[in-house]
Amino acid sequence: MCLDCVKEEYPDRETVCIETGSYLMNFAKCAHCNNLGDVKIVNRTEEEEDGEELITYQHVCQECGHIIANHRYSFYVEDDEYQMYEMECLLCGRGEDSRSVMPTDPKHMQQLF
């Protein structure tokens, strides 16, 4: 991972959790070759263990192959009630979200009162 390639380390992305793609707004330039273009995704793996889906990959410079960041995305269901999403990446940032598996989210209903 390269701190010199990003504008901000692990930006707070609130509820944004991406399982593929790159947050190019945070890409400064490749610290190795000064490329300002796109980054590509390599070494993508998908694993599932004990009901958790884990996707990992690397963001690399399209020109020279310099590793910019390691991306980690996970998804699991908590207590058969909530779908949990988490993301952590130097380039794309940190984010987490939860969604009820029920048609009406009980947590959302509590916030209304």
TrEMBL record:
- Decide whether keyword Zinc is in the record: yes
InterPro entries, alphabetized: Churchill_sf, Transcrpt_activator_Churchill
What Pfam families would the database entry show?
Answer: Churchill
- A Gene Ontology biological process annotation? positive regulation of DNA-templated transcription
Q: Which stretches are annotated as coiled coil?
A: none
- Could you give a GO molecular-function term held by this entry? zinc ion binding
Supply the alphabetized keyword list: Activator, Developmental protein, Metal-binding, Transcription, Transcription regulation, Zinc
Give the similarity note: Belongs to the Churchill family.
- Give the protein name, as stated in the record: Protein Churchill
List the source organism: Lingula anatina
**Which gene name belongs to this protein?**
LOC106174252
